[in-house]
Amino acid sequence: MTGKIYSASTTAPVNIATLKYWGKRDTKLNLPTNSSISVTLSQDDLRTLTTACAAEFFESDKLWLNGKEESVHGPRFLACFNELRALRKIREDANPELPALSKYHMHIVSENNFPTAAGLASSAAGFAAFVQAVANLYELPQSPEELSRIARQGSGSACRSLFGGYVAWEMGQEADGSDSRAVQIATQEAWPDMKAAILVISASKKETSSTVGMQTTVNTSTLFKYRTDVVVPQRFKEMSEAIVNKDFETFGKLTMIDSNQFHAVCLDSSPPVFYMNDTSRLVIGLIEKVNKIYGRVVAAYTFDAGPNSVLYYLEKDELIVLGLLKAAIPDVDGWDKKSYTSSIAPAV
Ligand code: 2P0
């Protein structure tokens, strides 16, 4: 059978948290145990490209990720898809002249241009691109905040990739997750000289997925409650203010101590969860030394659920940061070939 194919494509950026999301209070709805903050990276280097197609003659929903067919029956995928379809149905009921896309099966094709599941926020860009592509196809009027609430159900950190610039994921209070969504703290234009260097120390898939790792921490770490109840609420305020005030010194210090505390609660879990390796620690030592020599924060490191390092710095310091890194770790596997520098993303 043939017929008209409706399609929409979009790209979505990765975001790298500077105040980490780690832990769910509701695993089904992806509701976090703490609010988090991230910076969205420009799509020039790291991004997911997704196309969503719907046609009356498609016989089933299908999904391809990086060229490989994947299940469309996963609860996370379905949570997003069902909600988007329901929103389209409301539009069709109100506008009977619209094609009945909500009844058609869909084919989704998605590709990352960077290593997947290596702690480089691939699920964030992936689900953000999926939700945005389907929203475009369905011509949904929902705001980015509303779409972020849907993307959150696919992967928590995905909600932050619906915005450019500097973004907060407010954990919310409601049991149904209606107030757990991302908001923009500041646009890229408000603080345009921030840059990021991404050091791909290992492109291998991580051993412990974030989903499993964070619930091990929630269930077993005794330090974790102190982090969520005492540390993060205060740090969230301080980091938001530092961003609004373009105070890199404070932003950088908070970014580094939060990365370290996130990895500390991972280590405090049983069994312990390790994401950093010796090269990650070498980068930490180097940046700490550089900052000490200069007597200010020249660069701030942060590590997600993997050994790869992201450094935030101001454009004026780019030569110092990249020059010193190259001189200090010339032989790290993959260092020269797999590193990126990135600007911050303007509006997504
Ligand atoms: C973050 N990470 O804030 C933290 C820091 C990793 C370390 O969000 O289970 O892939 O899909 O909600 O979003 C990675 O976790 O986890 C993550 P799910 P997700 O970026």
UniProtKB/TrEMBL annotation:
An example Gene Ontology CC term for this record? cytosol
Q: Which reactions is this enzyme annotated as catalysing?
A: (R)-5-diphosphomevalonate + ATP = isopentenyl diphosphate + ADP + phosphate + CO2
Query: Can you tell which superkingdom this protein's organism belongs to?
Result: Eukaryota
Question: MF terms per GO, please?
Answer: ATP binding; diphosphomevalonate decarboxylase activity
User: Which EC numbers does the record give?
Assistant: 4.1.1.33
Involved pathway(s): Isoprenoid biosynthesis; isopentenyl diphosphate biosynthesis via mevalonate pathway; isopentenyl diphosphate from (R)-mevalonate: step 3/3
Q: Which Gene3D superfamilies match?
A: 3.30.230.10, GHMP kinase, C-terminal domain (3.30.70.890)
- Tell me which UniProt keywords the record has, alphabetically: ATP-binding, Lipid biosynthesis, Lipid metabolism, Lyase, Nucleotide-binding, Steroid biosynthesis, Steroid metabolism, Sterol biosynthesis, Sterol metabolism
Pfam families named in the record? MDD_C, MVD-like_N
The Mvd1 C-terminal domain covers 197-348
Q: Which GO terms describe its biological process?
A: isopentenyl diphosphate biosynthetic process, mevalonate pathway; sterol biosynthetic process
Domain (Diphosphomevalonate decarboxylase-like N-terminal) spans: 12-182
Tell me its family: Belongs to the diphosphomevalonate decarboxylase family.
Task: Spell out the protein name for this chain.
Answer: Diphosphomevalonate decarboxylase
From which source organism is this entry?
A: Lipomyces starkeyi NRRL Y-11557
